[in-house]
Write a structure and sequence with these properties.
Layout (H helix, E strand, L loop, with lengths): L1 E4 L5 E5 L5 E6 L7 E2 L4 H10 L6 E7 L2 E2 L4 H15 L4 E6 L1 H9 L5 E7 L16 E7 L13 H13 L6 E4 L7 E3 L5 E3 L3 H16 L1
Parallel strand pairs: 3-5, 3-7, 7-8, 8-9, 9-10
Antiparallel strand pairs: 1-2, 2-5, 4-6, 11-12
Helix pairs in contact: 1-5, 2-3
């Protein structure tokens, strides 16, 4: 794994640097503007899937600030990460807030589609950039925003997916029964805590990566 500072001030770390296609993973966030961190969900997915897909270059993004209120800043970091990934065919994997970031970046020529993992897709988010691409979504049925606990209701992503379908954007919507918000959390010591049904998130992501690698 290699790490790189982006021109925007964000960071990426890359696994399978010689991969002929790419998957760029953009992270979630919260209402409060706080310094970016590495996503536990993205890290777990890369840890599980990079060895299985050596032809895919996995690019994890750490924003300068991770916040819904700094969406433009997050998009700029994601755009810089796409540039760092090169012109290879690229799947954007957006977790939570990263769903909106990925949709904002979908019109980029190298992007083949967006995989939203419990994605935040507000009603005011323009979806025109998805035309000619795919939008696949995976969401846990028990995902919620609770006091002090970030989350995204599956009703939010379903509404966004249906809006995209009305624009003629193909894709799938997959639910994980009793799934929570993503597949991992960060422990106080910095390690990964795997959430219930984490294997289902890995399997669903792998199914989309099979198409990219093929």
């Amino acid at each position: 794994m290699t790490s790189k500072r982006l021109p925007t001030g964000g960071d990426v770390r890359v696994s399978n640097d010689d991969g002929r296609v790419a998957a760029v993973l953009v992270n979630g966030g919260a209402a409060k503007s706080v310094p970016g961190t590495w996503s536990a969900t993205s890290e777990l997915l890369v840890r599980e899937l990079a060895p299985r897909f050596p032809a895919i270059r996995f690019v994890e993004v750490r924003y300068r600030l991770k916040s819904w209120r700094a969406l433009d800043s997050c998009v700029a970091d994601g755009r810089a990460a796409l540039a760092a990934a090169g012109r290879a065919a690229t799947l954007l994997i957006g977790f939570s807030l990263g769903g909106a970031v990925a949709v904002r970046l979908a019109a980029t020529e190298s992007v083949t589609g967006v995989l939203g993992l419990a994605p935040w897709l507000p009603s005011e988010l323009a979806l025109d950039g998805l035309r000619g691409k795919r939008l696949d979504i995976v969401h846990g049925t028990w995902d919620r925003h609770l006091p002090g606990i970030p989350g995204v209701s599956p009703a939010n992503s379903r509404a966004g997916w249906e809006r995209a379908r009305r624009l003629g954007v193909p894709g799938t919507y997959t639910v994980i029964p009793r799934g929570l918000h993503g597949c991992a959390l960060r422990s106080r010591r910095g390690g990964l805590v795997r959430l219930p049904h984490w294997r289902d998130w890995v399997a669903a992501t792998a199914a989309t990566l099979e198409e990219l690698a093929g």
